[in-house]
Amino acid sequence: MAGAATPVWWAWSQHAARLREIEHRARDARFAPLATPRFRRPDEPVNWLTSLDAAEAGSRS
Predict the structure, then answer these.
(1) Which domain of life is it from (predicted)?
(2) How many angstroms separate the Cα of 55 from the Cα of each of 32, 33, 42?
(3) In angstroms, how far is CA 42 from the centroid of its own chain?
(4) In whole angstroms, what is the distance from residue 25 CA to residue 57 CA?
(5) pLDDT tens string 13-59
(6) Local confidence band at 4 (pLDDT 50, 70, 90 cut-offs)
(7) 15-27 vs 2-13: helix axis angle to the nearest 10?
(8) Taking 70 as the threshold, does the pLDDT of residue 3 lie above it?
């Protein structure tokens, strides 16, 4: 069963490099304006997406 944990370990081992790449691109003028929200709890992305859906629905009215 050691192989079952490998994808999780691999994904976590890539976290720091991916975070640096995202931060680098967020500061790059070629990608401006690029906002990068940071979510600290699992429910935060859902709440954020819900707020975007509500804002978009309001702009269509």
Answers:
(1) Bacteria
(2) 22, 19, 21
(3) 11
(4) 30
(5) 898 999 899 889 889 999 888 888 888 888 899 999 999 888 777 77
(6) low
(7) 30
(8) no
CA–CA distance, 33 with 29 (Å, rounded to integer)? 8
Place of tokens 């790059």: 28
23 is in which domain, residue-wise?
2-60
Count of beta carbons in the 10 Å neighbourhood of residue 26: 13
User: 22, 35 in Cβ contact below 8 A?
Assistant: no
61: pLDDT strictly greater than 70: no
What phi and psi values does residue 37 have, to the nearest 5 degrees? -70, 145
Does residue 1 surpass a pLDDT of 50? no
Lookup: tokens for 45: 């992305």
The CB density around residue 22, as the number of other CB atoms within 10 Å, is: 13
